[in-house]
Structure formats: C-alpha cells, structure tokens
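so my prof wants the structure for this chain in the tokens format not the other one, which i didnt know existed until like an hour ago. anyway here's the sequence
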Amino acid sequence: MKYMNIKDLLDGKVNNISIDEEFTIPKEVYANTDIKDLAKVKVKGNLTYPDVDDLLLEVDCSSIMKLNDSVSLKPVSYSFPFKISENVTEFLEKDKFSLDIISILWENIVLEIPIRYSEVNNYDKYKGDGWRVISEDEKEINTNNPFKDLLNKIEKE
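here's what i got, hopefully its the right format
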C-alpha cells in the first residue's frame, strides 16, 4: 500500500501538504469487483491538520475504469472524476507519521462504480426469437405490452 509521509504536517512545520500525484490501486484491491482494470488515479489538492482531531483531505481526483458494457458485455472505458473532502484521521498511522492514501482513494472509488453502464446506441442487433433489447426512451413510448390489459385491471382493483 502507498503511504504518504506527513511528519512535517503533524509536527506543525508546515500548514498543509500540497498533493499533485498519481496513485496506482493494486489489482488485488478490485479483483472481486466489476472493475476489470483501473488506470492510475490522478489526485490534486491539499492535506491540512487544523487540530489534533482533524486531518482534512480536500482533493479533486480522476481516473478511468474498464468495465463490461451492460448490454454488449464488451469491455468499455468509464471515465470518472470525483472529489474527496473529508476528515481522514482514521487512516493516520500515528506511530509511522503516515497516511494510507490508497485506502482513502479506494473507499471513494467504490462509490463511483456504476450499477449499469453501456455505450450501445443501436439496439437492433440485440434481439432474438420473441425478445429484443429496447432503450429507455423506447420503453416509455412502447404501448405494445401484452400485459397492459392485466395491469389496467389490477390498478382498478
């Protein structure tokens, strides 16, 4: 894991630590997730230590994750920016004067993983005998629902 040395900040020698760096999240961290690959995470911002109970990290981050397209199942790139603005005291290794930045980044990246993501615009080739994939827009205007009468009857009861 990547730890940031923050001894000078904790000792009061500096007011903040400026961060402009790229961090690599080890593959073992995301091995059991929907993420197939994760590019280096770009991090830019500041780490401040205003008092003993607060270690504030305020950074802008961005990266690209490879996921399987939820329609075509082909690998696609999903670019995502995110911000971190939180107290990260729990990630502080006081005896070592270091901060576990990888764990902080991972906790925030997990929140960015989309439930579904697709780059498919043309659904025509995704069909079979008696079924086809439709877009959200088509779903709204599709009135050819074989269960429409049954649904209306249930709604009246």
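also thought this was worth mentioning. The first strand starts at residue 3 and ends at 5.
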